[in-house]
Design brief:
With 104 residues, the chain is of the alpha+beta class. It has two helices and four strands, in the order βαββαβ.
Length: 104
């Protein structure tokens, strides 16, 4: 890998416990390879609200409200090695976590 390169990992999930567990697994795997980890840095939680009419006809007062919370974390890996990249590729994370990896 190049001297000034870094890897940025962006994690997204609906369940924050699952997200934190995945972030700690990534951090442990990277530290075992000798690279430095910055993070996980929590980003603002995106909250989407949905209002649904539950009445079959005109009763506008009968409504249910739902929300979806999307939690996000960012991790930076400074001075990654080939071992670091291989460890990240072989890592098995939970199914509910969306992982985006960028190489700078």
């Amino acid at each position: 890998m190049e001297a000034g390169s870094k890897i940025r990992i962006r994690l997204k999930a609906f369940d924050h416990r699952l997200l934190d567990k995945s972030a700690s697994e990534i951090a442990e795997a990277v530290k075992r390879t000798g690279a430095n980890v910055k993070g996980p840095i929590p980003l603002p939680t995106k909250i989407e609200h949905f209002t649904v009419l539950i009445s079959p006809h005109v009763d506008k007062d009968a409504r249910d409200q739902y929300e979806i919370r999307t939690h996000k974390r960012i991790m930076d890996i400074v001075k990654p090695t080939e071992k670091t990249v291989n460890a990240l590729m072989n890592l098995d994370l939970a199914a509910g976590v969306d992982v985006q990896i960028k190489l700078n």
